[in-house]
Amino acid sequence: LMARGRPVLGERKQCLGAVVTIVDITNMKVLDRLKSEFVAKVSHELRSPLSTIHEQLALVINDLMGQLSESEEHLLSRAKEKTQGLISTIGDLLDLSRIESGSTQQEPKPVQLEELLGNIVDFLGTRAKNKNQKLALEAPDEPLPTIKADPLALESIFGNLITNAINYTQEGGAVTVQVDTTGIHLRVRVADNGFGIEERYLDKIFDRFFRVKNDKTRFITGTGLGLPIVKGLVEALKGRISVESEPDKGTTFTVLLPVD
Ligand code: ADP
């Protein structure tokens, strides 16, 4: 059952009472589960033939190296890139349906978040450097408490957020990752001074396949599955995610995760 309520206000905005609606959502839940299972099954079925096509294209390109005209080589390479894109979209879809159905196999262990973030920042450093961007990690001097979580889930959450910050920020911009603690939570902020997001899209960006399309983002490739995955993983860890943004000023994602 799902309950929704709203206050009933009088002329002087005084509270007169409340209207509560209780809806039986059993059928919606069943449909949702069937949809998730269907997506998982289709994705699974598509992944292996696509991987074969990708491997075979790579072999053909390798074997015929030097014998192909420039345009033939270009066409085959494009086909290989597109198949790779499809394979990663399908991987994301599978991840998302596993997260939504609660069937991800999490292996929680105590994690030093600062160290994990340091590794991601090092790994993505080249990508930022290629765009002449500054990418930095800021942490307090005193050691932070550990959290208990699957390191792979944390890598996926922060890898996605930092990659987005780099992708949706102009050349020469800056991306800062800050970590600190509120006592009960570890707080990570991923802030950029990039393109920003219009307010009307802020609650949509966590929907699957949603992408903001404007002159600046048009040529950036993506699937619109990154943030739904991030949100699902954060919630599975009993954490929270929020976003603040201003067009042409930048965006900050804040993630709160309960300490161990
Ligand atoms: P993708 O990056 O594959 O498009 P995501 O789900 O990760 O998918 O993000 C959804 C959309 O949210 C992006 O297409 C982009 O429009 C917007 N977005 C995400 N992160 C940022 C950011 N740091 N700055 C500006 N826009 C962002």
From TrEMBL:
It comes from the Bacteria. It catalyses: ATP + protein L-histidine = ADP + protein N-phospho-L-histidine. It is found in: Cell membrane. Residues 41-260 form the Histidine kinase domain. Keywords: ATP-binding, Cell membrane, Coiled coil, Kinase, Membrane, Nucleotide-binding, Phosphoprotein, Transcription, Transcription regulation, Transferase, Two-component regulatory system. GO terms for cellular component: plasma membrane. GO terms for biological process: regulation of DNA-templated transcription. It is an enzyme of class 2 (transferase). The keyword Nucleus does not apply. Its EC number is 2.7.13.3. Its main location: membrane. GO terms for molecular function: ATP binding; phosphorelay sensor kinase activity. This is histidine kinase. The lineage of its organism: Bacteria, Pseudomonadati, Thermodesulfobacteriota, Desulfobacteria, Desulfobacterales. The chain holds residues 236 to 495 of 495 of the full protein.
